[in-house]
Amino acid sequence: MSITASDVKNLREKTGAGMMDCKKALMETGGDFEQAIDYLKTQGLAKAGKKGDRIAAEGLVFAKITPERAVMVELNCETDFVAKNEDFLQAGAGLADLFYKSTPASLEEALTLTIDGVSVEEKVNSLVAVIGEKITLRRFKTVTPKSGGRIGGYIHMGGKIVVLSEVTGANITDEAIKDVSMQVAAMNPKYVDKSQVSQDEIQREKAIFVEQLKSEGKPAEILEKILQGKLDKFASEISLMQQVFVKDPSGKKTVAQFLKELDPQSKVVQFERFAVGEGIEKRQENFADEVAKMMH
Fold first, then answer.
1. What pLDDT, in 10s, does the model give residues 22-37?
2. Per the domain annotation, does 249 fall within a domain?
């Protein structure tokens, strides 16, 4: 039977495998779609071990969030196309559910847990076989209340950035916790409060500011005042509670002020932020060069 471009496209959308691999699978199986999927799985298993040197910096962060506990899981792949693959999406959601229930203490422990009748490690390897790209379970984080607050979160662009936050206060709503988490997603603070900024970090910034001000020829009598203002602004910009609240139209209200208006006793206790691929050095390749390589 003849294999159409539509057949190849449908198989690629289902499996995430390469176009040529999909065409070959359909030809080898006489156009039988299900057999072609099995063929790709079989072929992929043999190749899975050869993908270790590839860079998997795309993917998604999957999350399961309740007021009592939340977990987020970063599952990486090589291309954004695969991050939309149904098998990839189901696996990521399944891992978030599993880690929420099992609360593993480490990535090593997480890989030994059982999902769909196999270990997590085997599950990830089977994804490599089906999809044809390097897939890695990079990290996960479980957040539980430290100070009697409630857990909430925010998921940006379907999982490109996920933030989990604990906020205290009897009148604090889920929407308010989501707004705080959205702030963390957008502004990426390092600390909850500027009181947590270390003196070492302050001193490093101070040395930089001193040199800048000297080069600008600022008189010594106002140098200290300017310096203190700059250091205070620096600490506020990297500290969540002192940051300007991004959803405030006036551009003047801080996150702390936003929360106090809802509940005078409220405060952010902790937050965790995962952004897909952060810290992974991505390989930059010219598309034309990549096509040229395929021709040889």
1. 888 899 999 999 898 8
2. no
CATH number at residue 35: 1.10.8.10
pTM of the model: 0.79
Instruction: Residue 282: count other Cβ atoms within 10 Å of its Cβ.
Output: 10
Question: For the segment 97-154, what is each residue's pLDDT rounded down to a tens digit?
Answer: 999 999 999 999 999 999 999 999 999 988 988 888 899 999 999 999 999 999 999 9
CATH number of the domain enclosing 72: 3.30.479.20
